[in-house]
Write a structure and sequence with these properties.
The chain is an alpha+beta fold. About 25% of the residues lie in helices and about 15% in strands. The structure holds flavin mononucleotide.
Length: about 210
């Protein structure tokens, strides 16, 4: 079990690195994931997110796989689909402005998508380790938009099917900074309403599915 008493599907969410490379996400499931992002809140309801849909075996997926970092090249290609998030930073033809709010909104939409995956009995693992500019150029992302990150989605695979290096990743202890170092009334001064610090390490394995 994970250590904190937060609601599902937050509670059972984690980022596996061993995906089942036989599992297929159908178009309806991918659409449902995108709908979860679609209904995220955003500043001025501008919805600055876009997703490049890379279903395993598709041409878009081939492009992504060619641009993965070394550390991600073992596990990402096995996932059923990858949604590459893109932030629109300005109107077409205009210079990109401050990316803070669009980046916030895209991250939030991706969080919704990630949690929808969990609610559907799937797993999602976000990642940023790929050549963003290379992907943007290969997939026609315009200058007023920026590739942000990506979300690998699928069903958890059997660790015996992958190299030890990738299997080992699924057994890393999950750690978090204590809330006293996160929630302030003034910078550096912990909010006094916090309960005595709870566990910040997830016991092993905490990954029943
Ligand atoms: C924006 C972002 C970028 C990330 N980049 C990578 C990555 O390139 N490779 C990777 O294996 N995991 C990546 N992760 C996953 C994090 O390492 C993971 O979410 C974190 O260790 C917490 O683990 P948990 O998701 O299981 O709680 C990324 C996550 C986010 C949100």
């Amino acid at each position: 079990m994970n250590p904190v008493d937060i609601a599902e599907p937050l509670h059972s969410r984690w980022s596996p690195s061993v995906f089942d490379d036989h599992h297929v996400l159908d178009d309806q499931q991918v659409t449902r994931l995108l709908e979860a992002a679609q209904w995220a809140p955003s500043a001025g309801n501008r919805q600055p997110w876009r997703y490049l849909v890379a279903v395993r075996g598709s041409a878009t997926h081939d492009v992504l796989v060619r641009h993965l970092s070394r550390g991600n090249s073992g596990w990402v290609p096995r996932a059923s689909a990858v949604l590459i998030s893109v932030a629109v930073l300005a109107e077409e033809g205009e210079e990109p402005g401050d990316p803070t709010i669009p980046a916030h909104d895209v991250g939030q939409a991706s969080a919704h998508l990630t949690l929808q995956a969990r609610a559907m009995g799937l797993h999602a693992h976000q990642f940023a380790g790929f050549d963003h500019d290379g992907v943007a150029a290969a997939l026609g992302v315009p200058p007023h938009a920026r590739v942000v990150a990506a979300i690998a989605v699928g069903r958890r695979g059997d660790p015996v099917d992958v190299p030890e290096r990738d299997a080992e990743r699924d057994h890393r202890v999950r750690r978090r900074r204590p809330l006293e170092e996160t929630a302030f009334t003034r910078w550096g001064e912990a909010w006094p309403g916090l309960a005595p610090s709870g566990p910040t390490v997830a016991p092993q394995p905490g990954r029943e599915d």
